[in-house]
Amino acid sequence: MEISFNRETISRAVDYIIDHKKHTVIRIDGAMGAGKTTLISEICKKMGVLEATSSPTFSLVNNYQGKKEPIYHFDFYRLKNPNEAIDFGVEEYFESGYLCLLEWAGIISEHLPLSYDHYELKWVNETKRILKQIK
Asked: How many angstroms separate the CA atoms of 130 and 58, rounded?
């Protein structure tokens, strides 16, 4: 499955992710600048987050309040060692049953749960992106 979208049609990708969600952990891979944070911000809005969202590059995780429950947004880009994720309790977040949206999750691949939704976001040009479901 692949979805082509731009800034004006990003809701198509967001709706697909939400409508086909099988797990509470959602991994979104993509190159720097592909739009991972933008896509996750739009997912958060769709899930009822009213506050401004941003990449948790330095804090590793941002907590947001959705319509009914918390949403956790992770960015593992700055980790030097995958075990740093264990040190801040990533497993407890994954086991919480709440939505966990992951950027740069390949860095902690050995600590990911066995089951999660996985997408790849590809930058095509200045306006076009492609979202591909991996598993």
From this structure: 27
